[in-house]
Amino acid sequence: MKLDGIRVLDLSRFLPGPWIGLTMADHGAEVIKIESHEGEPTRNLGPKVKGATPYFRNTQRGKLSMTLDLKSAEGREIFMKLAEQSDVIIDSFRPGVMDRLGLGYEAIKARAPRIVFCSLSAFGQSGPISQRPSHDVGAQALTGVLSLGRYEGRPPSLPTMPVADVALASAALIAILMALLRRDKTGQGDCIDMAMVDALMSWTPHILGTVVAQDRAPVLAEERLHGGAAFYNVYRTSDDKYVVLSGSEMNFVANLLNALGRPDLIELCKKPAGEAQAPVRKFLEETFATRTRDEWDRWMQDKSVCFAPVLDLKEAWDAPLLRDRGMIMKGPDGVDGLGTPIRFKEEPGQPSFALPGLGEHTDMLLERLGYDAAARARLHAAKVC
Questions:
Q1: 151-188 burial, b for 16+ CB within 10 Å, e for fewer?
Q2: Would you tell me how many other CB atoms lie within 10 Å of the CB of residue 236?
Q3: What are phi and psi of 145, to 5 degrees?
Q4: CA dist., res. 174 & res. 6, Å (int)
Q5: Which is it for strands 232-236 and 190-195: parallel, antiparallel or unpaired?
Q6: How crowded is residue 332: how many other Cβ atoms within 10 Å of its Cβ?
Q7: Low-confidence stretches of the chain (pLDDT beneath 50)
Q8: CA 233, 237, 243, 248 torsion: positive or negative?
């Protein structure tokens, strides 16, 4: 697989860092999850199936687990020894924590110059609010992204997905792979400072038009992707479910409006999103309300329109689409789990559904570092490992 021979030390928790480690493990990397004796929080976050939460299953499978007290001198030395044998470190502590532990990039680099050290945070490793604690929604708030879920007379809606977390994880994975690629040429690792706010803001080109060109916030009802375009919108059906149109290119517009007997509305869809397209939105609202969601889905099959029924998460989980692609897979214990979204023709990923018990691989990893049985027993007794 693409990452055979790469070893990752994963100090992160919750979603962004663990997703990075998971994705690398799916493609051959050995990922060592460094846990406190309390363990990764997602071990107990949410309902469990066969002893493990779906959150933990789908972010930590296929990793090795080692318990390690980084506040102890011996624990820090063990981590240093692991770093000397590793390629990547991922941490999501508050900025400065690793330096205070004596395990920051410069200290690690002195003993492991090839290390790629990736630090994840909400607001960056430096700056006026770097020490402010936050999860995903705080980064969405400070980038203006949360405001894009606000409609007239209503407060901003809580986001349906932690997009700041996912943006951070995706960008950080790219950065890590770029650093590893460069290391092959220079022999030197690198230090990567990845912030949620930076990653999320990089996703906003589609909505920056009025901000940059007109020095004002967007009016969502006039924005193409936020309700202003008739052919990029959500419509209620007769059974109180929903469908979406997700493409406003004129060929799709013509295909649907001709099929519905309203070619006279096509020209309106060439106008800017907003009030000019209101008659089309009204027609589509009334039209979609005449049939059920599934009836519309069948009717649309031969129309070549960007259309989809809105499924709930259970419906999507049970549908064949993602299962046919291997994105949802059944593990050996019979529990469905997520596969890998990265699909290579050559050397495809091989997701492992093995779930590490807390500290399950500690002794094996200590032995690899040269600690004999007596030394391992002493470290356990002292709660270093």
A1: eeeeeeeebeebbbbbbbbbbbbebbbebbeebeeeee
A2: 14
A3: -70, -35
A4: 15
A5: unpaired
A6: 8
A7: none
A8: negative
pTM over 0.85: yes
Amino acid symbol at 14: F
Q: List the domains of the chain with CATH numbers.
A: 7-202+323-381 (3.40.50.10540), 232-305 (3.30.1540.10)
* Model confidence pLDDT, tens digit, residues 213-271: 999 999 888 888 888 999 999 999 999 999 999 999 999 999 999 999 999 999 999 99
Query: Which single residue is written with the structure tokens 């004796």?
Result: 37
Nearest Cα to 30, choosing from 60, 57, 8?
Answer: 8
**Structure tokens given for 338:** 């997520």
- CA-CA distance, 340 to 332, in Å (whole number)? 16
Q: 226 φ, ψ to 5°?
A: -130, 30
How many residues are present in the chain?
385
Report d(CA 64, CA 362) in Å as an integer. Answer: 8
Whether 327 and 266 have beta carbons less than 8 Å apart is answered as no
Q: How far is CA 142 from CA 38, 130, 145, 204, in A?
A: 32, 13, 8, 13
